[in-house]
Amino acid sequence: MIRSIHPGSQFFRRRLLSLVPLVPIVAVAAACGGETPAAEAPPHRNQPLTNALKDAVKPAAAEGDAGAGSRPYSGHGASSVPKEVIAKFAPPPLPEDLSRTFQSMLDVRAPSAGRLSPNGKTLFMTWNVTGTSQIWRVDGAQHFPVQMTGGEDQTTLADVAPDGSFLVLQRDRKGEENPGIYLQDPKGGKLTVVAHKPGVQSTFQFLSDDGKYIYYRSNDVKPGSYILYRYDRAKNTREVVFDQEGIWGIADYRPAAPNSPELKLLLQKEVGGDMNEYYEWDTSKKTLTPLFGQGEKEDYEAQYGAKDGEILAQTSHLSEFKRLYRWDLAQKKFTPIVAEIPHEIFKFQVDHSRTRIAYAINDQGYTRLKIIDARTYKDITPPAIAKLTGDHVTFGSMTRDGRYLSVTVDSGKAPPTSYIYDWKTGSLTAWHTPSSPEVDGATFAPAKLESYPARDGTAIPMFVRRPEPSRCAAHPCPVLVMFHGGPEGQAPPGFSPVKQAFVDAGFILVEPNVRGSSGYGKTWLHADDGPKRLNIITDIEDVSKYIRANWGEGGKAPKIGVWGGSYGGYSTLIAMTMFAGAYDAGSSNVGISNLMTFLQNTAPYRRILRISEYGDPERDKDALIKLSPSTHIDKLSAPLQIIQGASDPRVPVGESLQMYDLLQKKNVPSQLIIFADEGHGAQKRDNRVLQFGHVLRFFKENLLGTNK
């Protein structure tokens, strides 16, 4: 069991950025991720406007202002836009060859690492083989998987009961990011709802050791604040555990005293992007004790350690890179428990029995796994795990007794393979086999780590995938620059059939990790906070300058396209407007067109966290206007494609509609596609085929002059 990284935590969102395809083009934008309003405040309802935001959403904008164009909008979600508008921009059919290409590539896949039953005999996992993520069961290593859930709604596994008698699931609808909590018998059957209300986000936190109680958080009272609840399975009732206003989650728990049914909860309060504070809440005494992070605006992830009075924390507060520390509750002091290295420790986990600590190192985008003793902190990584190699070797879940650990390996040449390590026998067993029908992953172009110089001389890392010279779509070989989401994300290497489809089409694929990306230390991460983004936004243009100057043939520079999702979509819009001429065509997926209107209309929860990243609408208004793509619309002349999900709670559909209006006024060749049944990027298989297919079609037409 992974004990305490709750689904709303900074770690959960940030790591999705690195390892899960976004929209799913780049990476799910954690920092662009968040919850939507509660039932009392439907998705189209806004908070009161500040004076600065009122100016920004006026129907007509002054010259050079970041106005909303001719379509001022309000709120987010499908209800914020007339149905006829959504229908007008429905995705058109794809040419058959493009559809076939991505249908084939999406057949190359692997299920999640999953969670083992307590007895180690059954693996439960999430898999999207039906076109939508659902729960599957494997009754033994390499046994045929059995589907447990179905339908059109994304469903994920949250936990397995301590005695294996039930599963805890999370389910969302139409990408609204308002998940509910359900229970299911491990043999299958109907789901039993614990909490799921329209417009409300309820996210699982943990199961009590006896399985009687489910702890979860919900914004059912106030959209931007989370109450912690305890649900009694037997009585089908819930009670409030903690209800102070704020973005709260439960990071871990322990008994308040030996043999006591009451608990002490390690609470995390998010106060900004990559900024959180930790407290201890005693459920019996009803006392809240501040621990660390208060007023620091620093990033922490923490769990209780194996020793009394000990908390383990991952942070970069005391060094440039994230490191593991021991916090002594009595002395209120941090002591490092692993050697300092020039790389990030981006996640860690203490098993439920508190005997071992697994942690993963982000080494320039590559992932390495280490395991140490929870009391001595000595390295105990088993040889069977130590010899695993690939672009990413990381850990998944642990059983409560600590006996079994799941390990995932992404070789970069095949879909990820998941193993179960048995600490008792020392065996490492693959429980399921990835699928690669009609595709030889060994022929895929590897992602090679390179760099380009920014104008101030800083080396910016980038991963490059190149086709064989004979397979370039033109000469010089055309280039697609893909920016990741976040901005606190990271473009990693690794196996990607979708990215390979663009390489197979004859494009060089480039993924920069511009300043503001995670994984390169806190100075790099915070280089773009607020108005500081003005100093480094030029990283977006500099990669195109480098490519034109160095990747040409016979004195001819290559054609360059730019694309990305979420913050990558924003980067694309900036590339095409502020840096007009740097790129020959762009495709923006769920991208921000106006930072002022975005901050007004995104989910209340997100507004709180995003202000710390982008800037305050009052204090930093001038910078936000300068950094808005809509401000620079008069510079744009190259073709631009915009893709959006109607239900998106992060980047409202209005951001795409207002940008499209401006493009129409400019008579810029453009296309707007809206998925009526998706949120922050397409998740359903058929929609993903349309999404990727139209991006490839667009670049073929506008960089090569053909759709073949």
Automatic annotation (TrEMBL):
Keywords: Hydrolase, Protease, Serine protease, Signal
Pfam families (UniProt xref): PD40 (PF07676), Peptidase_S9 (PF00326)
Signal peptide: 1-29
Positions of the UniProt region annotated as Disordered: 56-79
InterPro entries with a match to the protein in the record: 6-blade_b-propeller_TolB-like, AB_hydrolase_fold, Peptidase_S9_cat, WD40
The Peptidase S9 prolyl oligopeptidase catalytic domain, residue ranges: 495-703
Name the record gives this protein: Prolyl oligopeptidase family serine peptidase
Species: Pendulispora brunnea
